[in-house]
Amino acid sequence: QVQLVESGGGLVQPGGSLRLSCAASGSIFSINAMDWYRQAPGKERELVAGIISSGNTNYADSVKGRFTISRDNAKNTVYLQMNSLKPEDTAVYYCHLKGVVRIATLTYSALEVWGQGTLVTVSS
């Protein structure tokens, strides 16, 4: 069974930095994309940043220039470096993976997994 384990959340002052990590474990045939979403209290979950197998990345307008997503393919791990944090960045951050698993010889299935979330609080 594939699982995502997130780490790196916490309390930081405005203008500070945090680095989130998300490690995928289990038998994965291939990873198509790994993303970070966030959900603030009373708001819908939103995409923060994503990275696909080619290495191309995309970001929400609200974090462009401040956040950087990167990936270590050998470790099946994705990172989110967050700089110049603002109070409005406060949210639970979720890791998300889309890929493929092999369920039998020459038989594959689509995979979509969410992490349990890690809380980021930006406050003085």
Could you please describe the fold and organization of this structure?
This protein is mostly beta strands. It has no helices and eleven strands. The protein has strands at residues 3-7, 10-12, 18-25, 30-39, 46-52, 57-59, 67-72, 77-82, 91-104, 107-114, 118-122. The strands form two sheets. Strands 2, 4, 5, 6, 9, 10 and 11 form a seven-stranded mixed sheet that branches. A four-stranded antiparallel sheet has the order 1-3-8-7, with no helix packed on it. Strand 9 (91-104) and strand 10 form a beta hairpin.
Look at the structure and give the mean pLDDT: 95
What is the string of helix and strand elements?
A: EEEEEEEEEEE
Class from helix and strand fractions: mainly beta
Helical stretch tally: 0
